[in-house]
Write a structure and sequence with these properties.
Elements: H1 2-19, H2 22-29, H3 44-51, H4 53-76, H5 81-96, H6 109-119, H7 121-138, H8 141-150, H9 152-159, H10 163-180, H11 182-190
Helix pairs in contact: 1-4, 1-5, 2-4, 3-4, 4-5, 4-6, 5-6, 5-10, 6-7, 7-8, 7-9, 8-10, 9-10
Amino acid sequence: MKDVTENIPLLIIAFILGSIPFGIIVARIKGVDLKKVGSGNIGATNVLRSLGKWPAFLTLFGDILKGTAAVAIGKFLGVGPIYEGLIGLSAILGHNFSIFLKFRGGKGVATSFGVLFIYTPQVALFTLVAWIVIVILTKYSSLGAIVSFGLLPVNIALFDPQYREKLFITVLVTILILTRHKDNIRRLIKGTERKIGQRE
């Protein structure tokens, strides 16, 4: 119980970090309300469709960085893999349910990558490569996320020596990603999902 109470402040900090809506900020600098253009999503894919490559890059970098920073703080403080995972999960939840957007948000893909880069670097690389390959072959960012994160628990079990401590967290990350992409899954099945760079 002591560990739980000691780490609650870190979980709160991670949630606040995750809540920073970089896509909204970048779009507002450009004079655009991101929630009213494209898909309405706050992530880099919608920024790319609506504003172009550099704003999308800045959004992607910011969303990755907040996940990386949250877990890095936990690792620096030596909280151990279980709490590192919970801190990372809190950052992802912050992105998905931002306190700055009335508990609405994005789908958490970039922030999840940011978490994985510190939490399990080798598996993060496998996940990123899978995402890149699928996106190159299909041009669907959503399909890349669905498949690459769908394989995440398997990759943890196969390639991370600390998989016993990390498997539960990564299963939760996978569930979050798939749940946030349920509409994309429906559109992919119907053949109406937009490809990367495709505008309305």
